[in-house]
Amino acid sequence: xxxxxxxxxxxxxxxxxxxxxxxxxxxxxxxxxxxxxxxxxxxxxxxxxxxxxxxxxxxxxxxxxxxxxxxxxxxxxxxxxxxxxxxxxxxxxxxxxxxxxxxxxxxxxxxxxxxxxxxxxxxxxxxxxxxxxxxxxxxxxxxxxxxxxxxxxxxxxxxxxxxxxxxxxxxxxxxxxxxxxxxxxxxxxxxxxxxxxxxx
Length: 200
Hints:
Structural class: mainly alpha
Largest sheet: none
Shape: elongated
Helix content: over 70%
Distance between the termini: 64 Å
Low-confidence stretches: none
């Protein structure tokens, strides 16, 4: 990548970052004007149109970037091949961190955007995120069973439903704002519930 291409990519990233911050602050992409984005990103309005062609494309790229970041960060944690307990803790902390980076209204706006636009690309991204999460969790539970940390009597389907129920509960803004300091305790209780029973 030459100097010109590098500067172009840096500008694009700055525009996406500024747009994300403004939507997150205002809670609705419709409330964010292009002039405001240009000022916040310290670029000309024409530069934004040059790179993204329209506000709609820019908003789409912001949401796409969010999905991709969620997938990448989870994969990176799993790739470390740490023991089951450590991986669960890190994934939980990462999930809470990502949730804390966005407002509840940002999430609602993003999902409404996908629905209203009938955007197959973004819908596929959301589906891919869900599928990647399932794949990561299954791999993790299989690792836990091999390490003797997850009881073999629990089926993959049950484990997935159980974990999904907990994560969706954590996604409630009234819960995830308070749960971060208790990640270790939450994980400990979670693990004890799955561990094989010790025979006397």
